Amino acid sequence: MNQHETKQLTTVPPGCEQVATGVWRLRILFVNVYFVATDDDQWVLIDAGLKSGAAKIAKTANQLFGDKPPAAIILTHGHFDHIGSLPSLLRIWDVKVYAHSMELPYLTGHAAYPPPDPGAGGGMMSWMSFLYPNEPVNLNNDVQALAKDGSIPFLTKWRYIHTPGHAPGHISLFRDADGVLIVGDAFVATHQESAFSVLLQRKQLSGPPKYFTYDWETAKTSVKKLQELNPAIAVTGHGKPFAGRELTEGLADLIRNFQTVAVPSSGRYVRRPALINKRGVKRLPAAEGLPKATLIFSVAAAVAVVGGFAVAQLRRR
């Protein structure tokens, strides 16, 4: 092991957590990004967090790996809270971005995701979702499709699993040697619909965030795929790591009770999913509107929630 690798394994920057050998988690407000070391003294960034997180990501990368840029950026999917820092990071680093081919329409300016579903309920994060950015992003030639065989550039000991339902080209990453699973949002580790759970990072193995999930039957199938891997540890797009018996039993309970604990009781995509093809959204079910009072309350509460996140971040520094 060379001196640089020793630094990687022993030096953990403030606000960053080593979750497995060669894997670090960094929280950007309410979403996680991951730094993964390669076998040849390089590293790869998994997801890019919120727009406000570019400086924090770049600083943490420098503390972990020196001034070496990532070999690649891999996206689990392209929702706003997973790609927000990309434009800024791509101005810092000359690096390719990789995503599943089914995500490319949403990352090359050709299509918008199915609209968020504030009617899915579950808490303030859902009710505010009509405010979340959902317009197409155009990364032009900076993004390209992952190979269809499940291989991941530069991560030779990892493979990806296509886990749609939350996003059409959603992927999760798995390292067979030690059972490390980077989930993305196929399932998450907190009650993501609740602003209080998110703010406090309360641990709860949950289905994909309700407000952006467009196909619940497909989402359940994706969780089953990941359970069948028998992961030793799962790190998700939202919340803290789950491992061992807590993970095994949590996944079994989630799948067994998926209809009642993951699928919302009402919402735009509950009875009929959005119809997606390789070019984007083909058909949408009718929207289920929120009462006007709820909308007004949500907008007002958004200010309080953002303020709460800001205070929490300051306290963590």
Features:
single chain; 317 residues; alpha/beta; Metallo-beta-lactamase, Chain A; 5-stranded mixed β-sheet; 14 strands; 19% strand; globular; disordered N terminus; disordered C terminus; MBL fold metallo-hydrolase; NDM-1-like; membrane; RibonucZ/Hydroxyglut_hydro
Brief sketch in words of this structure:
Keywords: Membrane, Transmembrane, Transmembrane helix. The protein has helices at 3-10, 54-65, 80-83, 86-92, 104-107, 124-127, 195-200, 216-228, 244-256, 258-261, 292-316, and strands at 16-20, 23-28, 31-37, 43-46, 72-74, 97-99, 143-145, 158-162, 171-175, 180-184, 233-236, 242-243, 275-277, 280-283.
Question: Care to describe what's here?
Answer:
This protein is of the alpha/beta class and 317 residues long. It has one domain (3-271, 278-316): Metallo-beta-lactamase, Chain A, CATH 3.60.15.10. The chain is 32% helix and 19% strand. The protein has eleven helices and 14 strands. The protein has helices at 3-10, 54-65, 80-83, 86-92, 104-107, 124-127, 195-200, 216-228, 244-256, 258-261, 292-316; strands spanning 16-20, 23-28, 31-37, 43-46, 72-74, 97-99, 143-145, 158-162, 171-175, 180-184, 233-236, 242-243, 275-277, 280-283. The strands form three sheets. It has a seven-stranded mixed sheet, with helices on one face. The chain has a five-stranded mixed sheet with strand order 8-9-10-11-12. It is globular and about 50 Å long. It starts with a helix and ends with a helix. InterPro entries: Metallo-B-lactamas, NDM-1-like, RibonucZ/Hydroxyglut_hydro. This is MBL fold metallo-hydrolase. Residues 30-238 form the Metallo-beta-lactamase domain.
